[in-house]
Task: inverse folding
């Protein structure tokens, strides 16, 4: 497509200058022949012949070095080698404009493409997020619906349970009342039990004290037992000693009994003698009385005295002359004294023997021996 000059009339002059000043190096064809315009006989742009007369004057473009007419080279551009604004043909100018526009378009396109890319990425990410959100939402919805169903079920169950619990509460309240009554009874019983417990505790304490006392008594008894054992040992030894003493005493007893029998025999003999003496005395007394009454019968008395007599033998009475009564009286007196003495002796001997015998027999031999052993 061709671009005509009239199309660029709208372009500002400064734009063309300034824009070309910086970016026109690409317009310069370095490989091109710099004297190519000399051969050209017609305009390289509009192809009008250069007339010999000079109606259409020949110019040349400083960028493509081709011959052009003045109509086709009205624009100027900055030349990088010449460092100034120079003539440029419409073709090169259009080319520069095209490249500039294409560059700008490309840059704007790139920007747009980038924006589109970013937008696409954004969209994709948003789509992803929306998808994930959708998935999450659907999941949440499903869970929510499940939860709602469960809630409904639980509500129903709870309502049922609440009703049951209310009924149960009523039952429990009734039971509580009964329990309270029972507790009151139990408390009363507990008070009684407390009293009984206290009494039992006091009894236990008393029992413990008794136990202590018993223990003390047991210890005392143990001590006594040990003492008793010692005493028993002593007793056994004492018994042995007592047996020995008993044997001795038995011997002594036998001796005493013999002595006693001897004494008794003696006493019996002396008794018989005393009786004989008494008889003789009575006879003598009768005779004395008869003599005193008569006082005349000296001869009879002499005869009676002269007659052999046991008494006269015993008393060694010898007949004497003169005062026969005195002699008789003295003899009688002496006989009476002897008899009295004998009687006293007999009495004393009897008392002594009976007293000692009684005393010995009355005593327990063990007791007697014990006393002796204690003394020993
Ligand atoms: Zn021309
Ligand atoms: Zn040119």
Result:
């Amino acid at each position: 497509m061709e671009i005509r000059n009239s199309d660029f009339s709208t372009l500002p002059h400064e734009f063309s200058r300034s824009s070309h000043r910086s970016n026109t190096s690409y317009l310069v064809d370095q490989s091109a022949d710099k004297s190519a315009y000399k051969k050209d006989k017609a305009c390289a742009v509009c192809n009008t012949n250069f007339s010999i007369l000079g109606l259409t004057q020949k110019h040349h473009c400083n960028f493509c070095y081709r011959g052009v007419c003045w109509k086709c080279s009205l624009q100027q551009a900055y030349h990088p080698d010449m460092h100034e604004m120079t003539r440029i043909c419409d073709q090169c100018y259009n080319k520069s404009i095209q490249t500039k526009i294409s560059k700008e378009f490309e840059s704007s396109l790139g920007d747009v493409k980038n924006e589109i890319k970013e937008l696409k990425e954004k969209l994709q990410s948003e789509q992803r997020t929306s998808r994930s959100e959708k998935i999450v939402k659907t999941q949440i919805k499903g869970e929510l619906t499940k939860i709602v169903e469960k809630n409904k079920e639980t509500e129903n169950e709870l309502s049922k349970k609440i009703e049951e619990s209310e009924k149960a509460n009523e039952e429990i309240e009734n039971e509580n009342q009964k329990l309270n009554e029972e507790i009151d009874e139990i408390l009363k019983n507990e008070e009684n039990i407390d009293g009984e417990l206290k009494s039992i505790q006091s009894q236990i304490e008393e029992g413990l004290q008794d136990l202590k006392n018993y223990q003390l008594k047991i210890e005392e008894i143990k001590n006594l037992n040990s003492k008793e054992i010692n005493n028993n040992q002593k007793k056994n030894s004492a018994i042995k000693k007592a047996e020995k003493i008993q044997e001795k005493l038995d011997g002594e007893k036998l001796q005493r009994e013999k002595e006693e029998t001897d004494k008794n025999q003696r006493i019996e003999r002396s008794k018989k003698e005393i009786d004989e003496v008494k008889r003789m005395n009575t006879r003598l007394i009768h005779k004395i009385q008869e003599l005193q009454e008569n006082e005349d019968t000296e001869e009879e008395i002499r005869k009676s005295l002269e007659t052999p007599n046991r008494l006269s033998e015993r008393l060694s009475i010898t007949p004497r002359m003169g005062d026969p009564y005195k002699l008789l009286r003295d003899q009688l007196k002496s006989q009476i004294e002897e008899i009295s003495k004998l009687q006293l002796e007999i009495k004393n001997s009897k008392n002594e023997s009976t007293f000692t015998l009684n005393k010995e027999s009355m005593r327990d031999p063990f007791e007697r021996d014990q006393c002796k052993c204690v003394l020993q």
